């Protein structure tokens, strides 16, 4: 059985919320957080609560699943930066035509700089305002 890594944020924001994988794939979700320095990533990790729901089931708390903070490759973070990832093995293997709906939320306990807009001003994540992601993963023949 082949493991297929699905980049959840890419699926959500770049692919319209859906992606396909080869039939027989065991689905592993991958997502993370990046910032220009290690301290900002650590601040995010200390402030976040992250959950994932599969096919509408009860949310799974993956807040403690972020890995070690690492320097990010330039193709991911051109200005230079650091990040931490969650790699969540869903335990689900999809046959041709089957799909898996992965929905997640990230909530922070205090203001966190999220990204910079076109004018290079920070866009802030506010406490109590969930950032969400959603990806429907379908197995092709």
Could you describe the 3D structure shown?
There is one protein chain. The chain contains two helices and eleven strands; from the N terminus they run βαββαββββββββ. With 141 residues, it is mostly beta strands. The protein has a single domain, classed as Immunoglobulin-like (Sandwich). The strands form three sheets. Strands 2-11-8-4-5 form a five-stranded mixed β-sheet. Strands 1-3-7-6 form a four-stranded mixed β-sheet. The longest helix is centred in the first third of the chain and has 10 residues, at 38-47. It starts with a strand and ends with a strand.
In short:
The protein has two helices and eleven strands.
Secondary-structure map with pairings?
Blueprint: E1 2-7, H1 8-13, E2 18-22, E3 25-35, H2 38-47, E4 48-54, E5 60-61, E6 70-71, E7 82-94, E8 99-108, E9 112-116, E10 122-125, E11 131-140
**Total domains, how many?**
1
| Shape category | globular
Portion in helices:
10-25%
Fill in the CATH topology.
Answer: Immunoglobulin-like
Beta-strand residue fraction: over 45%
The tally of beta strands, per DSSP, is 11
Global structural class: mainly beta
